[in-house]
Design goal:
It comes from Dissostichus mawsoni. It holds the Pfam family ig. The chain has about 190 residues and is of the alpha+beta class. About 15% of the residues lie in helices and about 40% in strands. The protein folds into three domains: about 30 residues, no CATH class; about 100 residues, Sandwich (Immunoglobulin-like), CATH 2.60.40; about 35 residues. The strands form four sheets. Strands 6, 7, 9, 10, 12, 13 and 14 form a seven-stranded mixed sheet that branches. A three-stranded antiparallel sheet has the order 5-8-11, with no helix packed on it.
Length: about 190
């Protein structure tokens, strides 16, 4: 990257000499700041997903699985190069925009629905030196699956099915027992 570097220098008025005095020696009070005369390529933004209710099952080879009805957040961030900017969270069906705060943005999805599934990317936009710059993240695949908080399927599998199986077994037992003791009496006229 081409550019110039300089130190922020304190300036104070000296009453004895009736002049301003500038001290540009580096010290721990002043940090070096780089400004670039030509905008260079932006870093690639990072994209990630998280859930406050453990609704994200974790990384799969094809992406992330989010349980239907759970709350999840897709976060976009970028290594600082220029102040400000904004993030566009983009999928094939939705676009959301937020300003970059501390070089990141968080997109909240309060209840995951099948419409939220798809491939997402973060695009960072910033204006620097009278130029509009942008950079896109890798794709993040989100799949909405099942209903994590709904206990009905668990109740059916854990209680109703074994109870039905037990009742059928008991019914067959009594049917066979009664049938075993049936005596056939020939009819005579």
């Amino acid at each position: 990257m081409s550019g110039w570097r300089y130190f922020v220098c304190p300036m104070e008025f000296n009453n004895d000499s009736n002049r301003f005095q500038v001290d540009c020696e580096p010290s721990e009070l002043f940090r070096r700041i780089s400004y670039f005369s030509q905008p260079d390529k932006l870093f690639q933004p990072n994209i990630s997903v998280s859930s406050s209710m453990d609704g994200v099952s974790g990384a799969q080879q094809q992406g992330f699985q989010v349980f239907r009805g759970s709350t999840f957040t897709i976060s976009c961030s970028i290594q600082p190069q220029y102040p400000g900017g904004s993030f566009l969270l983009s999928s094939s069906t939705h676009n959301y925009t937020q300003p970059a705060v501390n070089h990141s943005a968080h997109f909240l999805f309060p209840a995951a629905e099948p419409a939220h599934q798809g491939n997402y990317s973060c695009v960072y936009h910033v204006s620097a030196f009278s130029q509009d710059l942008s950079s896109e993240s890798r794709l993040l695949s989100v799949t909405v699956t099942g209903v994590r908080s709904d206990p009905e399927p668990f109740i059916i599998r854990a209680v109703v099915l074994p109870l039905t199986q037990l009742l059928v077994t008991i019914g067959l037992y009594f049917y066979c027992k009664v049938r075993k003791h049936v005596v056939v009496v020939p009819l005579t006229e």
